């Protein structure tokens, strides 16, 4: 073991005991945790900003209903068999794309190691 290693350990012990002014071990651990949290929040902010850009760029969803059913957009179409009628709103293309993979993966902000 190099002598420098022992010197660093002894110096850190003096710092932790308050005999030398510098960053204590406890403060160092807290600082590392804070930096990690800041990095995580920056990634989340970048993902949110990119998602907002994508939402702004996406074309407005068009209505799949005719004008005579405007007040009842999800009323059953009696011309078709009742078993094939639509239940709930139609899925938008964006929803089906998001189901194919994670939104964060599609946005491309995180490296594959963090998926």
Describe the overall structure.
This protein has helices at 3-16, 25-57, 93-100, 103-107. By secondary structure, it is mostly helical. The chain has a domain at 23-59. The chain is built from four helices and no strands.
What's the helix and strand layout?
Layout: H1 3-16, H2 25-57, H3 93-100, H4 103-107
User: What amount of the residues lies in strands?
Assistant: under 5%
Low-confidence stretches: 94-101
Structural class of the secondary elements? mainly alpha
Q: How are helices and strands ordered from N to C?
A: HHHH
Query: Termini, distance in Å?
Result: 39 Å
What's the pLDDT, averaged over the residues? 74
The main sheet comes to: none
Number of helices: 4
What's the total count of β strands?
0
Counting copies of identical and different chains, the oligomeric state is single chain
Determine Rg (CA atoms, Å): 29 Å
The gist of it:
The chain has 115 residues and is mainly alpha-helical.
Keywords, separated by commas or semicolons:
115 residues, 4 helices, mainly alpha, Transposase
């Amino acid at each position: 073991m190099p002598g420098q290693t022992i010197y660093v350990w002894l110096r850190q012990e003096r710092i932790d005991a308050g005999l030398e002014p510098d960053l204590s071990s406890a403060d160092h651990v807290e600082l590392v945790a804070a930096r990690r949290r800041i990095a995580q929040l920056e990634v989340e902010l970048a993902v949110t900003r990119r998602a907002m850009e994508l939402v702004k760029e996406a074309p407005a969803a068009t209505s799949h209903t005719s004008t005579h059913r405007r007040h009842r957009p999800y009323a059953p179409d009696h011309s078709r068999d009742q078993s094939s009628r639509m239940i709930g709103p139609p899925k938008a293309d964006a929803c089906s794309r998001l189901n194919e993979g994670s939104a964060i993966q599609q946005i491309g902000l995180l490296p594959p190691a963090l998926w």
